[in-house]
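Figure-free illustration: sequence to structure, shown twice.
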Amino acid sequence: MDVGTQALASLVVARAFVPRASWRAWAVIVVAGTIANVDFFSSMMSPGAYLEWHRTVAHSIVVSLIVSVGLAVAYRFVMHDRFEEKT
């Protein structure tokens, strides 16, 4: 699946499961759904680099957990600051 299709699929899943979420939450879900395809950029270097890096480190469970925790912390930080501004 290419990056654009995966981003669209992530947006559809976000809209289906959390329809009342803010656009920031949807943005985080789309980024989390497409971050594994960062190895796509290796195809711009050379075919050998693409074959070496495609679906390796970026598709591992460890990287997925690290990225998910990082995005969750960033989202909580942004939304916490926004909540404090309203009160």
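We now fold a second protein in the same way, so the two outputs can be compared directly.
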Amino acid sequence: MDDAKYQELQKLEASLAGRLKVLNHDLSVEHSPNWPEQAIERENEDVLLRVQEETQSELQQVRAALKRISEGEYGICSECGQAIGSGRLAALPYATLCIECAERLEH
């Protein structure tokens, strides 16, 4: 696979790692002693926790894609072994399934 895709994934990895660092910091801030403010903070914390989980998951997928590049397996569907279309990889650079297998497995 070309170096451009590897660099794109490295940039995405750095961006996600930065986002995760900010989220971890925001989640470590102590709550206000004021009960009404604390209720709002806890609601916000729930949202931040969901975003944190999604960010961690995406970061793991990006790192797995980088590993697949280094192993020469990037862009190959893990289900059928065929090439994953360039359009799909442009939209989802860490895709592990071709569009046909992804659609089949969703149903």
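Summary for the second example: The chain has a mean pLDDT of 92.
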